[in-house]
């Protein structure tokens, strides 16, 4: 049975001279992988080959056996012209769709993540929006939604609150959150947290509670770097597009 859903294009690969395999994040079904027959022809129903970040109305037939479904028609309704004109915004957008696709299983609905990605891409399309703050907030919200954010307001081991802590603080993905200096001493997998990172974590936590906060670029970069480190550790691999946004570790 055919389904019709709003969708964002996450990944594409060539299947043949005229067709593609396309992964979409849909609002109601989650990530779907489809064979898009003939889309590389200029006169296809989608108007040509499908591009990353394309957003619109998707009509498709889902797979019955866990393989590829079939794309019937895709009508792009949201343009990304402002993003494509700016390298920093384009790189950030490509990072967000790679992260979303890596974190979500196929055919597992997450309408909140679809809305989160849509809103983040809309923000990145606004010329005055702070790119690194958008990336940091997306990372925070996505990791929290999938249950991987970890313990950030207190030491995950001794439970000492991080607010007002005067010693060094560390983050360990394998431990599941922040560690104080004493508890971190026996943990080999960790990264140091400086004052900018802890301030950014506090700001993101405040934003979650409904307060309006701003995140300067220096803070946004530090916390995005930490959360990207955490995401890569949980996935067991680095995200290919991360270095173009955050630089190399």
3D structure, described in words:
This protein has 249 residues and is α+β, with helices and mostly antiparallel strands. It folds into 2 domains: 1-129, Nucleic acid-binding proteins (OB fold (Dihydrolipoamide Acetyltransferase, E2P), Beta Barrel), CATH 2.40.50.140; 130-246, no CATH class. 37% of the residues lie in helices and 22% in strands. The chain has 8 helices and 8 strands. The chain has helices spanning 81-84, 87-103, 111-124, 131-145, 181-184, 195-208, 217-235, 242-246, and strands spanning 3-14, 20-26, 30-36, 55-61, 69-78, 169-172, 177-180, 191-193. The strands form 2 sheets. A 5-stranded mixed barrel has the order 1-2-3-5-4. Strands 7-6-8 form a 3-stranded antiparallel beta sheet. Strand 4 and strand 5 (69-78) form a beta hairpin. The termini are far apart. The model has no long low-confidence stretch (mean pLDDT 91). Residues 1-71 form the DNA replication/recombination mediator RecO N-terminal domain. One of its GO terms (biological process) is DNA recombination. Keywords: DNA damage, DNA recombination, DNA repair.
């Amino acid at each position: 049975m055919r389904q019709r859903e709003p969708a964002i294009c996450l990944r594409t690969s060539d299947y043949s001279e005229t067709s593609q395999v396309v992964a979409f994040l849909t609002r109601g079904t989650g990530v779907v992988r489809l064979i898009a027959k003939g889309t590389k022809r200029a006169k296809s129903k989608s108007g040509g080959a499908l591009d990353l970040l394309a957003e619109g109305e998707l009509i498709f037939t889902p797979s019955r056996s866990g393989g590829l479904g079939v794309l019937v028609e895709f009508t792009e309704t949201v343009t990304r012209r402002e993003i494509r004109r700016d390298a920093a915004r384009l790189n950030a957008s490509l990072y967000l769709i790679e992260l979303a696709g890596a974190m979500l299983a196929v055919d597992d609905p997450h309408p909140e993540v679809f809305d989160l990605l849509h809103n983040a891409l809309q923000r990145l399309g606004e010329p005055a929006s702070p790119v690194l703050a958008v990336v940091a907030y997306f990372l925070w919200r996505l990791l929290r939604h999938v249950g991987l954010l970890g313990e950030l307001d207190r030491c995950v081991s001794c439970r000492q609150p991080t607010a007002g802590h005067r010693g060094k603080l560390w983050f360990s993905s394998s431990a599941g959150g922040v560690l104080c200096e004493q508890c971190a001493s026996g943990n080999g997998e960790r990264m140091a947290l400086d004052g900018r990172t802890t301030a950014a974590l506090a700001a993101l936590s405040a934003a979650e509670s409904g307060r309006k906060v701003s995140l300067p670029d220096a803070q946004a970069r530090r916390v995005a770097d930490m959360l990207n480190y955490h995401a890569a550790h949980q996935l067991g691999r680095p995200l290919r597009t991360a270095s173009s946004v955050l630089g190399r570790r």
